[in-house]
Amino acid sequence: MDWSRILVNVAGEIFAPTTAAYALAAIGLNVHFGLTGLLNMGQAGFMLLGAYGFAISTIAGWPLWAAVLVAIACAAAFGLLLGIPTLKLRGDYLAIVTIAAAEIVRLVGRSTALTELTGASSGLRGNSYKDTFQDASPFPDGTFALGPFEYSMNASNSWWVRIVGWAVVALACLLIWLLIRSPWGRVLKGIREDEDAVRSLGKNVYSYKMQALVLGGVIGAVAGIIYVLPRAVQPDSMGRPMTFFIWTILLLGGAATVFGPVLGSIIFWVSLMLIKSVMRAGVPESVMRTEQIEQFGWIIVGVTLMLLVIFRPQGILGDKKELAIDVR
Amino acid sequence: MSADLPRGHVPAAVPHATTASGRDRVTADLAHVAHTPGVPKPDAIVVADQVTRHFGGMTAVDVGHLEVQRGAITALIGPNGAGKTTLFNLLTGFDKPSTGTWSFEGRSLSGVSAARVARSGMVRTFQLTKALSRMTVIENMRLGATRQPGENLFTALVPPLWKAREQEITEQAEELLVRFKLDAKRDDYAGSLSGGQRKLLEMARALMSKPTMVMLDEPMAGVNPALTQSLLGHIQALREEGTTVLFVEHDMHMVRHISDWVVVMAEGKIVAEGPPEDVMADQAVIDAYLGAHHDTDLGDDALLDDGSIEQLEAEEQANQAAAAAAATTEEGPR
């Protein structure tokens, strides 16, 4: 067993672009669930829309900033569309509608009718939309090694994606940090506790829920862009499992906290990589085949999510006191 | 007790014994108003017309005309299921009426959302207290304030734009907390308060917006006697400050104590109106709600005496009204 290789791989997950993308998606979900109490079960849909919006407009020849704006606009429109009928209803309905809507986005994206635009089920190849992003890099091409970590400077799974991805995560954390302490965040928390009470105090609950849904969705769309930059837009890799990974990350780190989603994402990907690498190296083929190990990793994710919700609903960073109060 | 009332020059006194200008003025205003359901008031703040609410085939509320006097404490009483809370929900925008219009301070409020009703100065509390459990007491209070620019998403990102107002709000909240004796709980989660303290918090929070009218849905339910005294003091203090109060309550001692005017509902309709003493002597009200022995202490040992039971039975037989009997059994468990 090559331990040093395993350790480098595992440590690389700490700052991998995927980790950043999931952290960002969980930050968006935190605005929905942690701050406002909205049960969004379709965060992957927002990410996929963002990815499509960015990739398709880039392929159409739009500049980087315009493509990002398109992604944001797609998510905002999607949020509005979902929110208009559901935010006046009880929370459960939003969960049903969002999970269905995210599936609709995925199924429409992979339908053969749209092959020209979305590449149907085979998706959009990374090289067709990465140029504008890579051209924006101030660094020279080639590879760069920082200690044991060696990645290309700009191409695909690069240092450049890592720098931008984590910078965006830092900005999002700053945004949430500001908002969570503001009177705006206070109204959202009030809505999470009891909508009618907040309504009776003269706040337009519907408008606040809509703002939260759109803001969290837009953050999700940006996460979608970062997620697809080192790979391709694959509708089937951004389905329901992705939403549940994001939920696991959020609950692991701690909902309604600033750094919970970031910590959750790092722990999630590091431990998943650790389990899979160790098992691949240590479990003989006769006991468990490589693809079974992959599946086993996901089973662990499911069990973790269940254990978290039952035994530590406040997550790692959550305020135990805040959640210990029996609301009902 | 007197600490609850913001009138420093008044020496320590029991609040219900005070005969301050507010009560005298309201009493004088209402002195010449007829004691009939739907009677016009000299200075009505709320005027409702033909308000009905049907749930399927059931008519929960059917109010022909109702006026609420400005600056007065008006009690809304009636048996369970009379439609009091439904009327509350309708007036405050938490429910949509089947028909009807109503106005508040001359502006029509029919079809207006609950949030806008609250912003126009009519703030309510709930029968089942809605303290925001996982927020601290002071955060609950701050949420009640109005005109906080930081409640806008974009302004929220620039603290200098809302810090000054936040400071004002916090000072106002702390004053109210002292008045409601909750200042020691300032940084505790609202969920850790007792039921009675939550009632106090909800009322204090409602006052953060400096409303012109507060609507209290059973403010005394589940509150111990000492706290009831203090709540009574707060409600009377509101009247002295010129705030209109409309409340639903089953505690007849409280109704008699503090209300200037009583409106009685039964089966969705207003069946009687008038000052508390008159209304409680009204035969229709006794039949529909109070029961013939509403003044009798049900826990009084004297009632266990054979003589008094026979006497009561004799009276009961004399009083053949079936409604009275029904109301008596209903009143029993309270």
Task: Describe the protein.
The complex is a heterodimer of chains A (328) and B (334). Chain A has 328 residues and is mainly alpha-helical. Chain A has one domain. Chain A is built from 15 helices and two strands. Chain A has helices at 3-14, 17-36, 43-59, 64-86, 91-110, 115-118, 131-135, 159-180, 183-193, 195-200, 205-228, 240-253, 260-282, 290-311, 320-324; strands at residues 143-146, 149-152. Chain A has a two-stranded antiparallel sheet. In chain A, a hairpin with a 2-residue loop joins strand 1 and strand 2. In chain A, helix 2 crosses helix 9. Chain A is globular, with a radius of gyration of 20 Å. The model of chain A has no long low-confidence stretch (mean pLDDT 92). With 334 residues, chain B is of the alpha/beta class. Among the domains of chain B are: 1-128 and 251-290, 3-Layer(aba) Sandwich (Rossmann fold), CATH 3.40.50; 292-334, no CATH class. In chain B, 37% of the residues lie in helices and 19% in strands. Chain B has helices at 21-30, 84-91, 114-119, 137-143, 153-156, 163-179, 195-207, 225-240, 252-258, 276-281, 283-290, 306-318, 322-331, and strands spanning 44-55, 58-69, 73-77, 99-104, 107-108, 122-124, 213-217, 244-248, 261-266, 269-274. A six-stranded mixed sheet of chain B has the order 6-7-8-3-9-10, sandwiched between helices. Chain B starts with 20 loop residues before the first helix and ends with a helix. In chain B, 44% of the residues are buried. The model of chain B is unreliable at 1-20 (pLDDT under 50).
Low-confidence stretches of chain A: none
Strand content of chain B: 15-25%
Q: With helices defined by DSSP (H or I, 4 residues minimum), what is the helix count of chain A?
A: 15
Roughly how much helix do the residues of chain B carry, as a percent range? 25-40%
* Spans of at least 5 consecutive residues with low confidence of chain B: 1-20
The CATH class of the domain at 1-128 and 251-290 in chain B is identified as: Alpha Beta
Task: Give me the CATH fold name of the domain at 1-128 and 251-290 in chain B.
Answer: Rossmann fold
Percent in helix of chain A: 55-70%
